[in-house]
UniProtKB/TrEMBL annotation:
The lineage of its organism: Bacteria, Bacillati, Actinomycetota, Actinomycetes, Streptosporangiales. Pfam families: ABC2_membrane. The keyword Membrane applies. This is Transport permease protein. GO terms for molecular function: ABC-type transporter activity. Belongs to the ABC-2 integral membrane protein family.
Length: 256
């Protein structure tokens, strides 16, 4: 009489949460090992914060310069990771067939998206810690409701992630690289990150305030600089962008 083999480890797929965490860890480490990604996500925001806090190249109005700049740089950090970095990275994964191969593993596509989302949030946590540490060293004194900050950052992440995935899933990798960097530069210049929107004419300013980066920057300033709680207009603008981006990405994203 034969006895069944005692195989260790037992054959079969790992539990879904474990697979998601494992993939998220890989995605997170890949970002930290990529010099271009580190330049985009950490070095550029910190350099901009230090440069514009220490010099008077731009008139930021009354008040301490770092108090205006720190919330905008936090918003830029979210955009650089959730939109620019994710769009470029996912676009090239799609081009080289990485997404197709991952789709053939026990990790379902929904699990892959969840892993990428967790990785983005983890990178943003590192960015926020570094940016806040530099800002505090420069004399920043934030105040306001932490819950409002978290909600703004999560909505901003959802909005930028949706459109980053939409771009990565519909354009060629080279086009995604060019378009994502172009959008990054334009939103940096026009989104109220380091240049106050009140310097623009009224009609232009009203249009720019509807951009997701402007809403996130303004909302964070209302909370961290002026002590507001759950600023209505920025939250509403970000919610609209988040819903639109995620719906469009779910509808048009192509895995191959």
């Amino acid at each position: 009489m034969t006895t069944p083999l005692d195989l260790a480890p037992a054959p079969g797929a790992a539990p879904l949460p474990r697979m998601i965490l494992s993939q998220a860890g890989y995605e997170f480490r890949a970002v930290l090992r990529n010099g271009e990604q580190l330049l985009l996500t950490l070095i550029i925001p910190v350099v901009l914060l230090a440069l514009f806090s220490a010099t008077s190249l731009v008139d930021l109005g009354a008040g301490r310069r770092v108090d205006f700049l720190a919330p905008g740089i936090l918003a830029l950090a979210v955009m650089s990771t959730a939109f620019t970095g994710q769009a470029i990275g996912t676009g090239f994964e799609r081009r080289y067939g990485v997404l197709k191969r991952l789709g053939a593993t026990p990790l379902p596509r929904g699990g892959l998206i969840a892993a990428k989302t967790l990785s983005v949030v983890a990178v943003e946590a590192v960015q926020a810690a570094v940016v806040c540490a530099v800002a505090l060293a420069l004399g920043w004194h934030p105040h306001g409701d932490p819950a409002s900050v978290v909600v703004l950052l999560l909505l901003g992440t959802a909005a930028f992630s949706g459109f980053g995935l939409l771009m990565a899933g519909t354009l060629r990798a080279e086009a995604t690289l060019a378009a994502a960097n172009l959008v990054y530069v334009l939103l940096l210049a026009l989104g109220g990150v380091v240049f106050p929107l009140d310097r623009f004419p009224g009609g232009v300013r009203s249009a720019l305030e509807l951009l997701p980066i402007s809403a996130l920057s303004d909302g964070l300033r209302q909370v961290l600089q002026h002590g507001s709680a759950f600023p209505g207009k920025p939250l509403a603008v970000l919610a609209v962008w988040a819903v639109a981006g995620l719906v469009l990405a779910a509808r048009f994203f192509r895995w191959e």
